[in-house]
Structures are given as C-alpha cells and as structure tokens.
C-alpha cells in the first residue's frame, strides 16, 4: 500500500530546496551540533517499460500520477540484515509502516526526474536502501521494486553518498483470467463423495472435493491472447471410479477481462 508523509507548510524549515530536494528528519529548530549525522544524495532516473507483446501498451512517464521515494535502514536484530522504515522525526529505524515514516512524495505534473534529492540528518555507519515507487491514476503500482532501488553504505559523519536511483516501470504482459463455475446435479444420498478435476491445455489441473448441488468456482490464470481453451470437468468417486463429465470453451481474444464460464455435470442415480 502506498504511504505518504504529510509535510505541513508551517513545518518546512526541515525541507530545504537548494537546487535539489532535501528531506531531513528531526525536530524543527537548531540542530544538535554534537549529534553525528550523515547525508544520502541521489538522482532519480526513469527507465520506461519495453514492449514484451505487441498488443499491450507499455508504461511511460505520462502514466505516472505520483512518485514516492522511501529510504530504509539496515538492522540486524537476529544476525541477518533486514530493512526498516525510518522515523521522520528521529531518523531512527521504526517498525511503523503508516504515519511518521520518512518519505519523499511527488505528484504529477510536478515530478522531477534527473533532479537530485537529499535525505539528511541520517545516522552514520549504516547501510541504507532507497526504493522508488511509481503509481498511475488508479493508484496501482507500475514500477518494479527490485529494479527501482539502490543500496548505499554511509560510512562516517556528514558523508555524502552519491548515486543514481533507477525507476524501472513494469513491462506489461497480456495475462487474461477467468473463472469456471461447476455445478454437479445428482442424488448425494446415493453416491459416494467424489472428486471433480478440471483440465485445460497448458494449465495445471485443479481438483477438489465437491458436494452435489453446491457451486464450485475454479480460476484460470495467465491465459494467452487469441487462444481457445477447452475446459473438461470430470466427476469421479473418491476411490477413482468415473461418474460423469462435462466441458465448455473459454475463448480469449485481445481483451484480458473475460466473462466466467459454467459447466453442469449430471450424475444419474445408481
């Protein structure tokens, strides 16, 4: 979920714009000159998505409605590294993921790529990870976290760690999905508990126990464009004996939003 750090106008003395955006945790007022602090300075660089399938449009800079840049600090409480959010007031690691987390947020049309940003008053001798996240108008994440981050060691007081922060937009791939609703009609008192299996080409079969007269939805994912899938459903007794079957077709065109399909199986009483 996207998180925002509210910065009221009355408290912007900790946010300085001197040719670059600076976000500085700590209380407003004169800094503690005895406290050791460090600085991270980065330049966001946008990398647009590439065409994976010709029928799918790619994400571009114009699709970004908002951009958040969040630093995390490395901690090792159990002997292995984990990255935590940073408290915007103290500059220390925090378990909070909601309010008060250090974060720089920009909204279109004021998103500035290739312009330096600076996170100041951080703790020295720490490792930091900075992640950029881009969202579209629907508040959907359209950037890849793994490819939109950088790790920076801050070694000493007032150390300026320069680096480029990549913002890699996701590649868009056609992957339709739909549901197949199965209804078994028959006399449950005269047959054993049975297993229903659903099969479709290139898909992993699904199987589950069903109760006669009760609807069951199966879900199919990652369907290819311009492909017709024949879905077969078999009802078998719990020990494997065949009872009945049914089938339907799922037709996928160039739209990845598909209506659901239904298969009815009639089981005759013994």
Description:
With about 270 residues, this protein is mainly β. The protein is about 0% helix and about 45% strand. The protein has no helices and 17 strands. The strands form 4 sheets. Strands 3, 4, 5, 6, 8 and 9 form a 6-stranded antiparallel sheet that branches. Strands 1-7-2-10 form a 4-stranded mixed sheet, with no helix packed on it. The chain has a 4-stranded antiparallel sheet with strand order 13-12-15-16, with no helix packed on it. Strand 3 (about 65-75) and strand 4 form a beta hairpin. It is elongated and about 85 Å long. Mean pLDDT is about 75; it is low at about 1-20 and about 25-35.
Which consecutive residue ranges, at least 5 long each, have pLDDT under 50?
1-20, 26-33
Helix content: under 10%
Main sheet summary:
6 strands, antiparallel
Q: Beta-sheet strand percentage? A: over 45%
Tally of extended strands? Answer: 17
Give the class from helix and strand content and strand pairing: mainly beta
The number of distinct helices, counting runs of at least 4 residues, comes to 0
Q: What is the succession of H and E elements?
A: EEEEEEEEEEEEEEEEE
Please give the alpha-carbon distance between the first and last residues.
54 Å
Residue-averaged pLDDT? 74
Radius of gyration: 27 Å
**Global outline:** elongated
